[in-house]
Amino acid sequence: MLAIGWHLVLSAISWHEVLSAMIAISWHMVLFLFLWISPHVLLGVLAVILYRRRLHREFPCFFALVLYEIAVFVPLFALSLLPRAAGGGWGYAYAYYATPMLRIALRFGVIDEVSKDLFRESRFLKVAARRSLQCVTGLLIAVGVLLAMFAPGDNSIKWIAGVSVVNRGAAMVQCGLLLSLLLFSRFLGLSWRRLAFGITLGLGASASVDLAIYALRAEFISQRWTEFLNLLSTGTDLVCVLIWIGYVLAPEHTPASPTVFPDDEVNTWNRELQQLLRQ
Amino acid sequence: MEQGIATVAPAVIAAWTLVAVGLSALAVLVYVAIYGRTSPGDLENAVQAFRSLDIEAFRNLVDSDEEAFLRDHLPPGKFREIKRQRAWAAFIYSWEAGRAATALAKVGQAAQRSPNPGIAASGVQLSESAFRLRLQTIPACLHLLDAVLLPGRQTRSLPPLVDQYERASETLFRIGRFSSAGQELARSESA
With contacts defined as CB-CB under 8 Å, which chain A residues touch B181? Predict the structure, then answer.
């Protein structure tokens, strides 16, 4: 039935139109392959830079996440090349939906690493701020669980909907935690180290887009939506990896110590404080 | 059909709400990325922030004895009006104290990286006090907003905020003294 339908359509349109359609399809495919492969090649570059600069010791979870993404990509790409008859379609789908659990755990590990790095210089904040973050995490998990209960997804394939809902909840918690870290640091006047800031920024961008993508994936399953969401997801991955590489390569900015302030400024400062203390 | 719409609609609304939340989070991240990380400590900003605060005036505004005196000597309507104005003024002081604390924290963190051990130690102390002060301004501001909205209720005193402010300013004063001493020492060594 479908073959007859396609035959009628093809006979009704000119060869020029068919050719244009094929070019359009191949462009879509080329774009998708580029956006899928290039982030993983760049992740390899990032892993080498992290290792050579000994940054894998400071951010071991982040380094493990980078390696994990590369390790997962290789079998997934190989499975995607297999024909459906050889188990390529379902094999790929099962493999794809089996990988997020460890990724979620590693991402939480990375968030823990950047928060430790942010509060590294203050003994007080190590306790107080981390306690606040634990409260934020608890609140976000509660919202995620409530969302999973009251908006469980309307996807016809139940286990895909289930995995999407878990991913959606995890993306929401991660996104909320990373935003809390950024806002908290601005509120307290904490200074970020360049790489920790870059990791937070990249991971935050990824988590916020993931939140939107998984929310849509839990509800919509049409071919057009899937293709669009795949492009969006791979495009975001590329942007995130570029952010990480940019921040790894950029030199660390060291803020000036107060010793370099000119004398008159310090005297003004002393005068102001003496006045304040005398009041 | 109506039943179908009724069951599907909340899930679709939830999905689009999450899309909006995700995009808003992305917008915040782009804003933070463009405007960069926290700027390094600016001594002048810290001085200006401190100059704008009159600690005694603030102490008077939140003094419970003063409040009791006003309550006893003013008609209830007038008292609530005055109390609201006083609480609002104290709220602005607290808000500014919080901003000053952020500036102090930046100066303190910069001082921590000083090669002079005295300045570095004072920097640690200053940033710790500044963080405490900053966090204390949150409940203080909420407490004062409560007093603005419900002026009839009796206000509790706010001693920790004032003490923290004074402790931070004393440490800051020490940093300034260390800084001057360091520069004088450097000048005498070069001479």
Answer: none
Q: Which residues of B touch A189 (CB under 8 A)?
A: 38, 41, 101-106, 109, 130, 134
Name the phi and psi angles at A87, rounded to 5: 90, 15
pTM of the model: 0.74
- Residue-number span of the structural domain to which B66 is assigned: 41-190
Q: How many CB contacts within 8 angstroms connect chain A with chain B?
A: 187
Q: Which residues of A touch B23 (CB under 8 A)?
A: 208, 212
- For residue B85, give how far its alpha carbon lies from the nearest alpha carbon of chain A (Å): 24
Chain B residues with beta carbon closer than 8 angstroms to that of A168:
18
pLDDT digit string (tens) for B44-75? 666 566 666 777 787 788 777 888 888 888 88
Evaluate whether the domain defined by A23-252 bears CATH number 1.20.1740: no
What's the whole-number mean pLDDT along residues A234-242?
A: 94
The ipTM is: 0.72
Look at residue A57 in the predicted model and tell me its pLDDT. 92
B56 and B83 inside one domain: yes
Query: For the segment A83-126, what is each residue's pLDDT rounded down to a tens digit?
Result: 766 666 677 777 777 788 889 999 999 999 999 888 887 888 88
Inter-chain CB proximity A208 and B50 less than 8 Å: no
Query: A219–B12: do the CB atoms touch at under 8 Å?
Result: yes
Domain identity same for B83 and B21: no
Residues B78 and B169 in one domain: yes
